[in-house]
Amino acid sequence: MYGKVKSACLLGIEGQIIEVEVDISNGLPQVNLVGLPDSAVRESVERVRAAIKNCSFKFPMNRITVNLAPADLRKEGSSFDLAIAAAILGTSGQVSFEELEHTLLLGELALDGSLRPVPGILSMVFAAKQSGLTKVIVPAQNAAEASLLNHMKVYAINNLMELGKLAHMDNELNRHIVNGINNKPHKSTKNDTQSDSLIEDFADVSGQHQVKRAMMIAAAGQHNILLIGPPGTGKTMLIRRMPTILAPMSDHEALEVTKIYSASGKLSDRSTLMRTRPFRSPHHTISSAALVGGGTNPKPGEVSLAHHGVLFLDELPEFSRAALEVLRQPIEDRSVTIGRARAICTFPSNFLLAAAMNPCPCGFLGADSDTNPCTCGPLKIQKYRSKLSGPLLDRIDLHVEVPKPSYTQLKEQSHYLSSAEMLEKVLEAQKRQKMRYLGMNIQSNKELSGKLLRTLCKLNEECEAILSASFEKMGLSVRAHDRILRLARTIADLENCDHIEAGHLAEAIQYRNLDKSNI
User: Fold this and answer.
1) pLDDT of 308 over the 90 cut
2) Residue 400, exposed/middle/buried by CB under 10 A (0-12, 13-18, 19+)?
3) HSE, side-chain direction, 13 A CA sphere, residue 95
């Protein structure tokens, strides 16, 4: 007797459809599991055996061969338990195979037959949809997450006994489809909107008007930014407010981010797509593999968890040189490819890099020399800054000095630009970008390159003279030259200008602080 059902596993962050084939033949009672399973999958045989018996079904006392196809792909995880049990029950005639046709089965079985949730449901259901499957059976705790995709019938079951009752289809989830994205009614959560009772606001920051403007420019064009200043000037506080001036995620972006967090097992609310842009702040002791991803079976790292959001690296020179250097390729390509013997996975990594550092090891270079004198010599300062390579600094568009505010600035009662006001300006600038790049595969100014960069960032004679003088005097690289043009284009968008003017270009050049320090 032969039977076959469909299940899935994760390959990186993407779902991979797996066919679970079962053959029951005469012979000594034993179960052979083939198809390159890992330890967790091999152990599923005992879970399935106990679950079938404890749910009043009969486990066949025959020779059972279970094959997971394609056989050359390494299988890991516990998501195959339900499919293996269903295939055995269907092949032995205890469950109708008609109800399992065009159906994806996912779930981990407990010994009593109840189902436990598994990570990565959204990615696996998405793969099922792309392969033409129309129905999915999942544990009840994964049902809300599976229902986030439209045009998929989701059936939630609590235990193996309910598998035989699917002919009645009594437990189909009610779904409400809006604009092609399935939004099941739910109570408001922190992921629903970015404007939901924001605790952090730029209006709380006294002074630092120039730094706020630089951060607004970074948000408008998705440019990388580095804040440099003494301790206690508000660098970390400012960057932690960056998400409050980023545009809300589109449905496509929200789906991409939710898939990454689902596959990583970090999805806190399975009932809704993530609507708040990620903000990741790893400690400076992080390894290269944890930062960009890795492992025997590759898993996403911090650069992928920050996809469509902000990756904040505080105390940038304290990170290991190896960890910082592996950031260069993800920043440039907006994706990272991890190659291992078992698999090669590509993870998205389109993030805004925001970093902070002190100007010297003691932190007080350029501060008040009377109250906080710098104790670092020139060689010590050079050694400290040399931890940041030139190629990495080239990929950071804005190098912004954060001065220590005076007591008068702290106590003045003048109106400070709020996050809502800054966001309004950012959205206006991004609206201009969307109109300009209509029909192109470009979302923001930071993606401009090649011939398109020269065309859309064309300079007049005055601007050419300014950039030429700066290029020679500051010793800029070609990459820094292009990033200045992109930055000037964003500044012009914030000023509602169709063309880059001398003021826009001059402001963009002044944000290359670490380049100026080499003059």
Assistant:
1) yes
2) buried
3) 31
